[in-house]
Design goal:
Distance between the termini: 48 Å
Largest sheet: 6 strands, mixed
CATH topology of the largest domain: Rossmann fold
Oligomer: single chain
CATH class of the largest domain: Alpha Beta
Low-confidence stretches: 1-49, 344-367
Structural class: alpha/beta
Shape: elongated
Bound molecules: adenosine-5'-diphosphate, magnesium ion
Number of strands: 14
Length: about 625
């Protein structure tokens, strides 16, 4: 408080001043009075606070509104004015007990069908994108069969299952050992047949909807999750499915509404749900239209409720994808009401600037990390017969900083991805601290590791991507805490503690609760670095960490990396920032067409390049 009052006039006036003047004895040139005086002395500065804002007028919009109102009035007068609609009969039956019982049955069938259908559908969709050909085929066949059979046919088939099989039996197949047995006709009641039919139908359709959502999630998200070493299950349920939700939800709700109305098909089983009940009643009293309207209005009510729920669920899953959430229905109504009743808005004076963030990476050197030694030995890799890495060998001592230079397409990313085992090698090997990546060594034999073990091993290597690949649906804090939570099994409080500590180190403690899309590129990249560091990797790989950034943001990220260079972690950095390489690198490596053409200390490689291609390259980027 004291320092601020010494350097700037306090809005509280002199009573808070460090000069110690007693209240009420303020010199006239201070406090709010001085503010007004300054304004009076500067007539060219307008007092914006007194201006009133008039919202723009839109004549076409107004005309459209009037036209819609006329149309609505015409429809209402035709529906309410024509006595043949039979509204008194409608009123008599709308809340009648049999109708409500039928409605209850419809709702129950919808809820059960949706629950079971979407659960099975999720399993089918995951099976369809799994690595197992058998699972994929089974899932495909299920969807094929149950989307082909019309719902009514399926319902009748299930209802008549007793003709095919007299009993339902659980036991060991192809033996006479049985555990339980039921009579089919007793087990498959009309309600059971309706539930099964709706569920199977629903599962087939929702499987495709969910699969569509999964396919819509960016590939980079999977790589980022894999690079963190998250187990496959967690990748699916924590990273992929929540993001898929945005494209799943509209189709899924449409499908759910279809299911709610599709329950009317079960009238064929003489199951008295809403529609069948209505039919019974109008056959008796011959008031067909009013009773059909009873059903219609109830279906409308169901649909309206579902639409409201849909709006809220969609809003929930929009958190990570939008910078600003759309207002809720209630919120929107509130804004509209206030705009009608409140006085016209006025311009506000700009809010005071937020305090400047702490310089990024201020405290990196505080903690010692132990780096890993990376040995790349004769590594080769081809895509479609084209050699992308050609017998690459490289020794990276523990705790050192290596900068990899090279033209686009020279294989730099492929080399980094191989070190993190995101690529499978065609030849050669890579070891970290003597342990081979992707294999378990037993004597002279190498056993290729299963994906689960590779994921576990990957924890030793962190990776920072050019386009950040933060998880957009998780807060900044959750992004950083995810690795320690899922992979190291840290309790949430500890993981968050560690995440906050790391965020403070990259100068972003105040952004812990923000979502990635609310941050600048430089801030996002610093979060990505914190996320990679959260697992305390021995080796940290940077793939052009600053090339997606605006020039003025590059420095804040390079500063963080530079601080990191003194902390002991082994760093491999692909970058075009030659100045940075000169300052920070122990070794500079130049790659060209999948080979290392030159490597050595920056003074030598950058000052007196031997190879003409490197000279060419440096002339271009410097
Ligand atoms: P750099 O990072 O140096 O720009 P990359 O390692 O990304 O280069 O790519 C090296 C070469 O390999 C490029 O010619 C690129 O087109 C090719 N390549 C990379 N990934 C694939 C892939 N998955 N399939 C086919 N070609 C690829
Ligand atoms: Mg690249």
């Amino acid at each position: 408080m004291n320092t601020t009052t010494l350097t700037a006039p306090s809005p509280l006036g002199p009573s808070g001043s460090a000069t110690g003047s007693p209240p009420g004895l303020a010199p006239p040139a201070q406090g709010p009075a001085a503010h007004a005086q300054a304004q009076a002395q500067a007539p060219q500065r307008r007092d914006y606070a007194s201006l009133r804002i008039v919202p723009a007028r839109y004549p076409a919009r107004t005309a459209g509104t009037v036209l819609s109102l006329v149309l609505i009035a015409a429809v209402l007068s035709s529906v309410l004015g024509n006595p043949r609609w039979g509204w008194p009969v409608f009123a008599e039956w709308f809340f009648a007990e049999p109708v409500l019982v039928g409605l209850g049955r419809t709702l129950l069938l919808t809820a059960l069908g949706a629950l079971a259908g979407f659960s099975i559908g999720t399993g089918l969709a995951l099976a369809r994108v799994s690595h197992s050909p058998l699972l994929r085929a089974l899932s495909w066949t299920f969807v094929w069969v149950f989307r082909s059979i019309p719902l009514i046919v399926l319902l009748l088939l299930l209802n008549n299952l007793g003709y095919l099989y007299e009993t339902v039996w659980i036991g060991v197949p192809f033996t006479s050992i049985g555990f339980a047995e039921w009579s089919t006709t007793q087990l498959i009641t009309p309600f059971m047949a309706a539930f099964l039919g709706l569920t199977l139908n629903q599962a087939a359709y929702s499987a495709e909807i969910i699969r569509g959502g999964i396919l819509s999630v960016d590939q980079g998200q999977l790589e980022a999750a894999a690079a963190l070493g998250l187990p496959r299950r967690r990748q699916a349920f924590r990273i992929v499915l929540p993001q898929a939700m945005r494209s799943i939800l509209p189709a899924a709700f449409s499908n759910l509404i279809g299911l709610a109305k599709g329950t009317s098909n079960v009238y064929i089983l003489a199951l008295p749900e809403l529609f069948y009940t209505i039919q019974i009643i109008y056959r008796r009293n011959l008031e067909v239209i009013p009773l059909l309207m009873v059903a219609t209005v109830w279906y409308l009510v169901i649909l309206t409720v579902l639409s409201v729920v849909q709006a809220h669920v969609e809003r929930h899953y929009a958190r990570g994808a939008l910078r600003q959430l759309p207002p809720t229905l209630l919120g929107r109504a509130g804004v509209w009401l206030r705009s009608r009743t409140a006085p016209a808005p006025r311009l506000r004076s700009p809010a005071p600037q937020a305090a400047a963030a702490a310089p990024p990476g201020a405290a990196w050197a505080q903690r010692e990390h132990t780096g890993g030694q990376v040995d790349v030995h004769g590594v080769s890799k081809s895509y479609n017969g084209v050699k992308v890495l050609d017998q690459v060998s490289l020794q990276v001592p523990a705790g050192s900083v290596t900068v990899i230079l090279g033209q686009s397409g020279s294989g730099k990313s492929t080399l980094l991805r191989s070190i993190n085992h995101l690529e499978r090698l065609d030849g050669g090997f890579i070891a970290i601290d003597g342990e081979l990546i992707g294999y378990r060594q037993h004597g002279d034999t190498l056993y290729e590791l299963k994906e689960k073990d590779i994921l576990r091993r990957r924890v030793e290597v962190g990776m920072v991507f050019q386009n950040f690949n933060l998880f957009p649906h998780l807060s900044v804090l959750d992004n950083v805490a995810e690795g320690p939570l899922a992979v190291q099994g840290l309790p949430r409080a500890d993981a968050e503690q560690r995440a906050r500590e790391l965020l403070a180190r990259v100068g972003l403690a105040h952004k812990a609760d923000a979502f990635p899309r609310q941050l600048s590129g430089g801030q996002q990249q610093r979060v990505a670095i914190a996320r990679a560091l959260a697992l305390q990797p021995k080796v940290l790989l940077f793939d052009e960490p600053t090339s997606a950034l605006d020039p003025e943001l590059v420095k804040e990220v390079l500063d963080v990396i530079q601080e990191l260079a003194r902390s002991g972690t082994t760093l491999l950095i692909v970058t075009h920032e030659i100045g940075f390489a000169r300052e920070v690198a122990d070794t500079v490596v130049f790659m060209d067409q999948g080979r290392i053409l030159e490597s050595g200390p920056p003074g030598q490689v950058l000052q007196s390049p031997k190879h003409p291609r490197l000279r060419d390259f440096l002339a271009k980027v410097l």
